[in-house]
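Exam revision sheet. Question 4 asks you to relate a sequence to its structure. Input first:
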Amino acid sequence: MLDDKPLFEKPAKSFYTPWGLAFVLVFLFLFQIIFYFLAVYTGGLIYDLGFHGALNLLNEPDGTSKAINLARYTNVVSFTGYMFLPVLLFTIINKTSLSVEGGLKIPMRRPLFFLSILILALTIPLVDYVTGSLQNLDLPQSLKYWANRFEQSREEQFNTLLEMHQPSELIFCILTIGLLPAVLEEFMFRGVIMNIFLKILRNKNTAIFLQAIVFSVLHFSFYQLPGILFMGILFGFVAQKTGTILYGIIMHFLFNTTTIVLYYLNFMEFDKSGVFGKYQSLPLNIFTAIACFFGIVIFLRLFNRVIRNSHE
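Answer key, structure tokens:
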């Protein structure tokens, strides 16, 4: 299904090597630690808590505005540091640019833009169904224990970051939790990491799959792993076919924003009635989930046809 056309132009002597991949991954993990503690330290100064006070409040949030703002500040600083700086350092060493890595000079096409939105619209309920189905599986007790521990920690973090009671908070979360991760993660995974895999392996299907594995594993969620892996493959396919990460940024942003808006609506309902969780993703059964999957396949074929016709 994928052709042999190179994704982006690459210099003859480049850092698209196993060493380049190791460099990006090592600095991603290293900066994740460094910028987290840097954010905690500076957050402690800003909110007059000290380092240990800020760390304790992040680990055990009490629902106050200080705890929420500290969590949001820490998230923005740490995420930007460990997701953006490795990409920037890679472009400097490789003597390329963010524009080259992301294919940003390739203009977007209207039919592909609308098709990408339709594909994403079917992906959201499908991923939600797969995640829910995995949570309901009868897993071994030890595996379920650790999966639930990770999921509980992740859910507590999201509940703190996404506790919104004003439209201004909704806008802030859309920008910092919806848009920022969409842009930086697409540069990291569908830009730099997929470029490296493409150059090393010279096999586009394998490169797309491997970057999606890295993308999904680094989200540290057992139950959401299959769904995130599917989205990583989907965004990778779109980037490889179009030569740009712009469509993936839009799809990624819309996926994130859907979650944020649902949280906002739930908190608004909680403020009115004391009930949280009224607004959820569309409930699906196995048949509608299969219909969504085949709908995605059909739209991807149309997506591919539009690109192929433009090359004729």
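Marking note for examiners. DSSP finds eleven helices and no strands in the chain.
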